[in-house]
Design a protein that fits this description.
The chain is of the alpha+beta class and 362 residues long. The protein is built from twelve helices and 14 strands. It has helices spanning 3-6, 9-19, 22-28, 42-48, 72-85, 98-112, 116-119, 173-197, 204-207, 277-282, 339-347, 355-360; strands spanning 60-62, 88-92, 132-135, 150-157, 213-221, 231-236, 242-247, 253-257, 260-263, 271-275, 292-295, 303-311, 318-319, 337-338. Helix 5 (72-85) links the parallel strand 1 (60-62) and strand 2 (88-92). The longest helix has 25 residues, at 173-197.
């Protein structure tokens, strides 16, 4: 009987999950080939072999003069153009000291480098919608092939799901709490510029509750011995309104721009901002949520990235393009939807591209 006929994917996935090792534990064990559950199909791997277009880079925007009456209109135009054309951009002079960014990356790296016996205390196989959760592949049982990443998730709001400080791992607690405050400050500044870019009041997105629901994923992409057979994270779009991302110097993040993939390179002191599906919908397509992915890490140094997601805290009504943006000349391009529909679309499947936007497009 050959190896293929002996292979039971569900059993292998369960075995990996119950070990609580994560991919960092596998990497640290010195394996030279990855388990079969991480090997992706040829159609996924062939797309990964495309070389990124090195002639294109996402916009880098300097926020140092954000409060200057003469310079702010220029910043609004830059942010609006970047959010429409790329869906991603980087900001510098955003108000968070570079030392704080470096300490944040170091602390989460320290968490992931602890023995798995220590980390396993936080390992949970849940949907991850409250408190603190550590796991490898939130969609492990829903996806066809696992990805080479471990993640610590911390919820910052709303209050009923917010992680208590004492539940956050001690080794990174101080940095996690401070990141929650700092990332929110940056998000509010950027949301004001995006709102003004649509001709709305600067506080419109905050008024709509875009800062109420927020969670952070603290990813570790350790060394992978066969990076050409797997991925760090599959191509997907973020479902929320806005994402603020901090990453270390180890590359891997790429975004889809037209028909090509381009690298999102590490810029010291910079934070990366990207538009989520929810913002694309309520802006009636003025801003674009684009596919992005992370390649498996071939470097001995782990890739660390910290993403903070901002969205609305759902209610029983309907969401859709903002009425202020609609006119006979610019009718709605998306139908209204319920928050329950939004949540079910995201949590009922593995990571993928923006199927909700495709579903509700008129």
């Amino acid at each position: 009987m050959d190896e293929a006929s002996n292979y039971n994917r569900i059993e292998e996935v369960k075995k990996f999950d119950e070990s609580k090792l994560g991919v960092k534990g596998l990497s640290d064990s010195g394996i030279t080939s990855i388990p079969k559950i991480f090997i992706h199909p040829p159609e996924t791997l062939s797309d990964l072999k495309q070389s990124p277009d090195q002639s294109i880079s996402i916009p880098l925007i300097d926020l140092s003069l954000i409060n200057s009456p003469t310079h702010r209109p220029k910043l609004i135009d830059q942010v609006k153009s970047a959010a429409k054309t790329f869906g991603f951009f980087q900001v510098i002079n955003h108000g968070v000291p570079e030392s704080t960014l470096n300490d944040t990356v170091s602390s989460i790296k320290a968490f992931h480098e602890q023995p798995h016996e220590v980390k396993s205390e936080y390992y949970k196989r849940e949907e991850g919608r409250k408190g603190v959760t550590f796991t490898s592949n939130f969609d492990l049982y829903k996806t066809k092939a696992a990805s080479w990443v471990d993640s610590l998730q911390v919820w910052f709001g709303p209050e009923e799901v917010r992680a208590r400080d004492e539940d956050i791992p001690v080794i990174c607690r101080k940095s996690v709490v401070e990141w929650g405050v700092r990332a929110t400050e940056v998000a509010e500044k950027v949301m004001e510029l995006l709102s003004e870019g649509l001709g709305l009041e600067s506080g419109k997105f905050k008024e709509l509750g875009f800062l109420e629901k927020k969670s952070s994923l603290w990813h570790c992409y350790p060394y992978c011995p066969q990076p050409d057979l797997t991925v760090g994270i599959l191509p997907h779009t973020d479902p929320a309104g806005l994402t603020v991302l901090l990453q270390n110097e180890v590359g891997g993040l790429q975004i889809k721009h037209g028909d090509v993939w381009i690298d999102v390179k590490h810029v010291p002191g910079a934070l990366t901002i990207n538009v989520g599906d929810f913002l694309q919908i309520i802006s009636n397509g003025e801003y674009n949520s684009v596919q992005h992915r992370v390649l498996a890490n071939s470097s001995k140094e782990p890739r660390i990235s910290i993403a903070m997601f901002f969205g609305v805290n759902g209610y029983d009504g309907y969401y859709g393009p903002l009425k202020e943006l609609l006119s006979p000349e610019k009718p709605a391009v998306y139908r209204n939807f319920t928050f329950q529909e939004f949540e079910e679309n995201f949590f009922s499947k593995g990571i993928d591209s923006k199927s909700l936007i495709h579903k509700i497009k008129i």
